[in-house]
Design goal:
- The complex is a heterodimer of chains A (about 300) and B (about 290).
- Chain A is mainly α and about 300 residues long.
- Chain A folds into 2 domains: about 45 residues; about 240 residues, Orthogonal Bundle (MetI-like fold).
- Chain A is about 75% helix and about 0% strand.
- Chain A starts with 8 loop residues before the first helix and ends with a helix.
- The model of chain A has no long low-confidence stretch (mean pLDDT about 90).
- Chain B folds into 2 domains: about 45 residues; about 240 residues, MetI-like (MetI-like fold).
- The longest helix of chain B is centred in the last third of the chain and has 35 residues.
- The N and C termini of chain B lie far apart (about 50 Å).
- Helix content of chain B is about 75%, strand content about 0%.
- Chain B has about 290 residues and is mainly α.
- Classes of the chains: A mainly alpha (about 300), B mainly alpha (about 290).
- At the A-B interface, helix 1, helix 3, helix 4, helix 5 and helix 6 of A face helix 1, helix 2, helix 4, helix 5 and helix 6 of B.
Chain lengths: ~300, ~290
């Protein structure tokens, strides 16, 4: 290494700039890591009063009463689990069928524009799905509830799950379709060559090959359903008691935060809401890491 | 001809037809609610659009008329500010990943962090922005909303910048370095401009994603019935108007919520389509 004095002044300056630019870029990269860690610890710090008061019991306490300052997260954990998994159960068969239809059955002339429209629909803001659900889905569900003799709120867990299903469908569908279109043509042709029908090829060649990718799509859709706020908040009815049936008014973790955060005047109430946010953060991080593992598996193949 | 097949073969063919039919049917059913949403949005929304709607401020509750001029301005300001905050950070981090970090452990940690940030629910991002900006300032502000939206934008732009810069051929870097141009200038003057269309696409996708976000604005930008251009005051935004009006008891406001939805959907769709046209242009260049 020549000492600075031996180098032309200009070159020395450029080397300094080079090092400075590399440090700036690396520093920004580290900044992104710090943002995520800081976000996590901010949530822990802000929810500390609630963590200190309730400890782990917070997870299975069933009373949530801002007036008497009694807080437990179980009703919201249950609400989130029911709406997420019910919506996933409703959406998955349709998403899978849609992906097979677009990836295998439909000619490109149909598949391309339809996929385009579906991806645009995935970009529509959730508050608009909520608005639509409030004015069209709620009356529909209400008349259905009257027929079967359930309490005719129209709002509630079932309606929220329906909107969620409609919202996550384009998302799960486009991931699954992308994976299905990655299945090598020669594998499929080999199956046809052996005399397999189209369905047998899909069942025994395409689906096994695309399995991890499809699972990743479903898990990613689950991650979205867990954290989805606006559409759910607008139709779930906002009742903070344990739900007894899927026709009940309820709250999810996200919707209780959206509803009560600006109204929380007591420190403990605010801290309890932030702790629910912290739980949501941890759950979605785990779900997304699981999806990542499935995606890595698909790529290894 | 058909009868010359054994019965089992006929059954296989029949099963094939039945199952493919079921799949096609299942694939077509979900298009129904999706088309209903679009149709009802157009049907309800278009009738509430007028010039006054774009130029006037909200009327007091119960009074007819009024518009959403403040919310349109607010959305533009909040999203613009978020872009100003988020894009420089994202591009530098993207440059780090593609030009310096590559396969190092630190680079992987940055990628995982970006993925984690992308998965965090928007309402939780809102809480974080509340703690970081609203609490120290002591009041709600457009700026805190922009910080929340910038946090949501960063992972999208970081990853697209990295992907796009990785596609720039090494020959270009080597040609530039051989001319005696230092690496940092090579990155800024050769690599980044070559990938600029791709980076712009990523930024547009990110803006489309954050423009319709409501949850992170609920307790940051908060909303405002009056016109303000000052980013440290509470500010209205289109998604907030839709939420607040839709859940209000006034029929007049419901109508305006549909109108605001049309404006918002049009903005988001335009951004999405624009980004697609750009993306197609890159694919054509290759």
């Amino acid at each position: 290494m020549p000492t600075p004095k031996e180098l032309p002044k200009n070159l020395y300056r450029q080397i300094k700039y080079d090092i400075a630019f590399r440090k700036l870029a690396t520093g920004t990269g580290i900044f992104v890591i710090i943002l995520v860690i800081a976000a996590f610890f901010t949530l822990v710090y802000e929810s500390w009063p609630a963590i200190k008061t309730y400890g782990l019991k917070f997870l299975w306490r069933t009373t949530w009463d801002p007036v008497t300052l009694e807080f437990g997260a179980l009703p919201f954990l249950v609400g989130t689990l029911i709406t997420s998994f019910l919506s996933l159960a409703i959406a998955t068969p349709f998403a899978l069928a849609g992906a097979i239809f677009l990836g295998e059955l439909a000619p490109a002339k149909v598949a391309n524009p339809v996929s385009f429209v579906i991806e645009l629909l995935a970009g529509i803001p959730s508050v608009i799905y909520g608005l639509w659900a409030l004015f069209y889905l709620v009356p529909l569900v209400r008349s259905f509830e009257m027929k079967i003799g359930a309490p005719p709120y129209g709002l509630g867990l079932f309606t929220a799950s329906l909107v969620l299903a409609i919202m996550i469908l384009p998302y799960a569908l486009s991931v699954a379709r992308d994976v299905i279109s990655l299945v090598p043509q020669d594998l499929k042709e080999a199956a046809y060559g052996l005399g397999a029908t189209r369905w047998e090829t899909i069942r025994h060649v395409v689906l096994p090959y695309a399995r991890s990718g499809i699972l990743a799509g479903i898990v990613l859709a689950l991650g979205r359903a867990l954290g989805e706020t606006m559409a759910v908040t607008m139709v779930i009815g906002n009742r903070s008691a344990m739900p007894q049936s899927i026709w009940d008014l309820a709250n999810t973790m996200a919707s209780v935060i959206a509803n009560e955060f600006t109204e929380a005047t007591e420190d403990l109430h605010l801290a309890a809401l932030v702790e629910i946010g912290l739980l949501l953060f941890v759950i979605t991080v785990i779900v997304n890491l699981v999806a990542r593992i499935f995606i890595v598996k698909t790529k290894v193949k | 001809m058909k009868n010359s097949y054994p019965a089992r073969e006929n059954w296989r063919r029949l099963k094939n037809k039945i199952i493919l039919g079921i799949i096609t049917l299942l694939a077509l059913i979900p298009t129904l609610p999706l088309f209903l949403i679009l149709f009802q949005l157009l049907h309800k929304g278009l009738s509430s659009l007028s010039i006054d709607f774009f130029l006037h401020l909200p009327a007091p509750p119960g009074e007819p008329g009024g518009g959403i001029a403040n919310a349109i301005c607010g959305t533009l300001i909040i999203v613009g500010l978020a872009t100003l905050i988020g894009v420089p950070i994202s591009i530098m981090a993207g440059i780090y990943l593609s030009e310096y970090g590559k396969e190092s452990k630190l680079a992987h940690a940055v990628r995982i962090s970006a993925d984690v940030l992308q998965g965090v629910p928007s309402i939780v991002i809102g809480i974080v922005a509340y703690a970081w900006v609203v609490r120290p300032m002591g009041h709600f502000s457009a700026l805190s909303g922009s910080v929340a939206l910038a946090l949501m934008m960063i992972p999208v732009v970081v990853r697209t910048t990295e992907e796009v810069l990785k596609l720039v051929p090494d020959i270009l870097r080597e040609a530039s370095l051989a001319l005696g141009i230092p690496y940092w200038r090579t990155v800024l003057k050769v690599v980044l401009p070559t990938g600029m269309v791709g980076v712009t696409t990523g930024i547009l996708i990110a803006i489309a994603r954050i423009a319709g976000e409501t949850a992170p604005l609920l307790f940051t930008a908060f909303g405002n019935q009056f016109m303000t251009l000052n980013p440290i005051e509470p500010m209205n935004a289109l998604p907030l108007v839709i939420f607040n009006y839709a859940t209000s008891p006034y029929e007049d406001w419901w109508q305006q919520a549909w109108g605001a939805s049309i404006v918002l959907v049009f903005m988001v769709l335009a951004l999405n389509i624009l980004s697609r046209i750009l993306a197609r242009r890159i694919a054509g260049e290759k």
